[in-house]
Amino acid sequence: GAGAEAAAVDWRKCDTVAKILASCPQQCLSLEDYYRLVCPQILDLLHIQDKLTVRQFQRVATTTLLTMAKEHPQLAEKHLLQPLLAPLLRCSETAELEVEDLSAGTVLVTEAELGSCVEDVLKVYVVGNDSSSLLLGSLQSVLGVVFSLYSFAKQNASYLRSPCQEILLWFLEKSEREVSLAVLEGFAGLNSSVHALHPRCRFRTGSEGGASIAVEETISDEDEALYQKVSSEQRHVESLVELLSHCQKSGLAGDFFIRCLKALTCVAAEDEADSNSAVVPGGSLLELEQYHAGQRRKLLVLQLVATLCESVSDTVFTDIAQVQEFVAATLQRACVSPARGPGAAVEAQTLAMAMGLVAAMLSGAVQLQSGDFTVLKRLVPLLEELSRTYPEPLTQELAADLRIAICTHGAFSPGTVGAAADGVLGKKPGAGAQSPAGIPSGAPSPGGSRAPPRHGCGSPSAPMERSEEQSVSHEPGTAGPMSAPCVDSPAPAGLQELLVSAYDPQPPGRAAALRCLSSLITQRDPEALRLQEKLLQVLGSHHGIALLSSEYPERILPVLLARYGCPARDTEDTAAAVTRMKLGEVLMRVTRALGDMVFKHREPLVQAFLRGARDPDGALRASSLSNLGELCQRLGFQLGSIVQEVTSCLTAIARTDPEAEVRRAAVHVVVLLLRGLSEKATEVLRDVLRDLYRLLKHVVVAEPDSATVLHAQLALEELDAVMRRVLFPPQTLEKKIVVLP
Fold first, then answer.
1. What are the boundaries of each domain within the chain?
2. pTM, rounded to two decimals
């Protein structure tokens, strides 16, 4: 209809039709027979593509489904919900028998089927917006697979990311708070409240921007399996944190943060117990498995809290009571295990955040009422215990001052509280404010001169900036001691001290300095740019080099090429190959950062990857060829005079390399060349086109690896299409009108 009234009438018609469909007619003898006949047709209504009627049909289908679910939940679940969710249930970890019996490479769910399923779930659950227990329960059975798909789509820029996110957020919003928190823990791998993707199933990028699900072989190499598992867990944690960033207004993100901190407190208590009763080497296999499962859970909790601290600010908390609960959980954990062991960095970081939040509230960031002080007074016993037992003296002093400020309702607020509030709020302390160490807060500290604005990694107070010198047990980098340079450019002396701290024998101090140096690079600090060579020596890790390469690609590229061509000595062959593969990834990041300027460095980059393609390690050869293919795409396939060298290398590898993975990579580069050049192939590759054709024919005839043969067949089809367009150009009929003089 043209107006709102007509549209409302139209919707009422749709609802009326839905009620008729949901009602079993009198002439039908069996209700289940009616459902069995009608339900597949109702699901088909969701897939109608006609633009004029699609909304009406989807409205009818959704309303009919919801009505049936209310009236006859068991029949609706059997004939509607299970068929609707079948593609997701098929690859869940509960589908043990079906998946285990399938061979590797079998496609369980096609791209079209998976995309249609996700869209149907969005239409029925989110658009229908009926939060009945039946619908929430049925959706929870596939939430683990939907979350894995969301994480995959986030990494691969798939259109499925948005609908998956809407589905997950809808469930978290409509479910009871305890159920939502349990599901979030399930996403992180802390419990089994959701059924994850089957371990033998993997998502594959689809040709239409979606994804498919296929069965993969079990990885026999234990190191590779562990790497894949850790990488997957890291991606899931990052995706979970991003999902929580959309749940801050409802308070769910804050509640989950608090739950994780309480779990971290339990981890600290368990560590104390484990130190008293170590695992007996001769224990049973069951005991050993339980021990390893417990250790894995501890690491997951630490990783989750660390990521939340870095990515979520204090705005995650929606009221004073929630802040109090967060601070109480943090203080309790600090009293149990005061910043030592593998979780010391996370503990110090959250302690800094918690004490800084309390100081900020007491300093006027929030207008506190008398009832708010009643809530805050629950922290007094914990602050008193912390002031007596915590090993770091400045933290003791701040805890004592916070306790006094709370008990006096803010009437007496020592200078340490104001300095801590300035640290959290990102303000520069006044010159007159004195720190406990007797140094004016406005004076430059060893790490820098300003307090950081980030709530997640900032120092809770100016006094904390001196704690690195006074206590080794306190974590320098994350609680704030060396975090101050992370905001503004420090004086050269401050930067020099950071460089010295990067060689600190204590891992926490070293990590703090490296984190701050990385932040300076990201902010393109002029002093850091001037000391770029020194920073390259200090940031020896691949992550640090990658940061430098992203910010100063042209300066770092020669150094990277030299390292890629000459692996470190006195290392095992496998370790050297892994190092060079990581350097290859950094080189590709540099080429992306260079953009069109990559043409200037075309020959050294191509030659570096060609040398890597002749390395004794097969994985490195395959990695180099993969990088070569992407580089050719970045260059627009304009290889210039080195095209002969590239094709000769590809031909030799495809014919003679002993490993199928490497031969497959070589043929794939040929496919990329032909596909990218298209009709220009006859011009750019005119001197080597015949050799490439003979190579592809040889691969099709003699290659034992089926995937490599498929690549070769695709390349031949591409070459055939190119030659047909060149030899038989399409004739166009034109009508010309000539005006005679």
1. 2-94+102-249, 259-274+289-425, 494-528
2. 0.53
